[in-house]
Amino acid sequence: MRRPLATLCLLALALAGSASSTALAGALDCTVSTTALRYRPSVVYTCPAAVATATATVVRTSPSQTVPSTVTVNGDQVVVDIGATLASAGHYKITPAIDDGAQYTTPSSWTTRAAPSHANVRVLYFTAMAADARRDMLQRVDAANIVAVPHDSDVIDASSGSMTVAQIESRMKKHQVVLVVGGDASYAFPVNLGKALAWFQSHGHGVVTAGQTHWSQDLPVWSYGSAVGAGTAWDKNWAMYPDGPLIESDRIEGGQIQSSTIKKQFITAGLKSFTVIGPSTGEVLPRFGADLLANFKLDGVPGNRFDSFHQAFLAARQLSATRTVDLGYRPWSSAIAGGGFNPAVSPGGHLLARALLWAANRIPPANTHFTLKPRSPASYAQVPFRVAATDPDPDKLGLRYRYRLGSGAWHWAMANMFEFFGMSNGRHTVSVYAVDSAGNRDPHTARYTFTIRGNPG
Questions:
Q1: DSSP H helical segments within 254-299, as ranges?
Q2: What is the pLDDT along the chain (457 residues), one digit of tens a residue?
């Protein structure tokens, strides 16, 4: 029987999607599994017999650089844990020295996955959870390949030590979104963290909460009505609303998503079902309001105290350009203590990564195009235009448009329309692009060239 550590490492390898497994020639005839993961990945050797001793050297081949690693022997398995975040699209080689009476030293090479689609969106992770759960969660963010690859420097263990508000804010400054995740440990400095989160949101940045962590009713203030600002044992004494119920053991159970409540939204694009296996989170009572952009419910566990309320699976709120998401599951595998979802059936890692990107509000509009434009040639000097674009994550503030004529100055359109007067005969080019509420612009600029001919002037 394989030991739990080896099992967990294999689970981490499985979520990379592109792991390779190759039988190697040698006295031990071991099989090696590499991975495209970048955040603290593992390389696993499985041998036909128990291994006596093993060492390994991991290097980045270009540029040449030794990578720190530790080796653990578990019966017939050798697990090489890489203690750093690897580069995207990086080339690496591992040389083992495995011994059960005969040496095995055949090297293997692999390449990590390409850079994330939004590598400029950096996440700061506040965690109060076990190390193996944290590693699993961050590897799933890595595997989703949507936001920046996590580094250890992006992680703050909020279950121990102390940090002042100024220290927390200083760590936040280089990040676009914060994830606050609780497991079964209490926060060591909840009041200061709450104040720093309020400061972070007041500057237009987003926050995602998960685990036993929730926000207060009055955004963006993280007050004594929220878990992180309670100043007490928050895993048992928080209230979503001033008169809301407290967390109890029969409250934090899972269920299946109600298909009738699934609404089209960026975070849950393509989601058909989701099952929470272990402890779950989310709002106790769904709240409908102008700032609520998504609200999906979980069927409660039969006999659960809150079964009739159908616990919210995901709630996403927006106040101006500030966005907050509350996830209704613990975002690490149920194969690890306290985990909330089975990665074989529920896309928990991708859902978390999408929530981080949505909260960061860094998704640009796309497909700016003209819906009304003049014919060419035109014979009149007054020329109206109407434009549109696609917003992958629409909000109540909508899109704005900037336009210009030829190489002239850029102007803001009134809604989605603009017009030119007194145009001269000849050739003209109009350019326009969309901008969302956070200032993200469509990288594509729509252009239309037309001719005015026969205008009496």
A1: none
A2: 334 444 444 444 444 444 444 444 445 689 999 999 999 999 999 998 899 999 999 999 989 999 999 999 999 999 999 999 999 999 999 999 998 777 888 999 999 999 999 999 999 999 989 999 999 999 999 999 999 999 999 999 998 999 999 999 999 999 999 999 987 777 888 778 888 888 888 888 999 988 766 655 444 456 545 556 544 444 444 443 434 445 554 455 678 888 887 877 888 888 888 988 887 765 555 455 555 555 677 776 666 655 555 667 787 877 777 888 888 889 999 999 989 999 999 999 999 999 999 999 988 999 999 999 999 998 888 999 999 999 988 777 789 999 999 999 999 999 999 999 989 999 999 999 999 988 899 999 999 999 998 765 5
Q: How far is CA 435 from the centre of its chain?
A: 23
Longest dimension (CA), the chain: 98
Q: If you count them, how many residues does the chain have?
A: 457
DSSP state letter for 12: H
Q: What's this model's pTM, rounded to 2 decimal places? A: 0.82
Residue 115: which residues within 8 A CB-CB, separation 6 or more?
88, 89
